[in-house]
Give the backbone structure.
Amino acid sequence: MALFRLPPHYVFDYKPIYYDARKERRKAVRQQVRKELGKETDPDAYK
């Protein structure tokens, strides 16, 4: 017989965000080169 009730424990669905500065820089440089070459298509765009 318990004298008091403990609340259930909470579970958090936390997904940390990883920022890769080198990857962002590569992406920006590639986009700039494509723009200079006249290939301004977005690789993430729907085809």
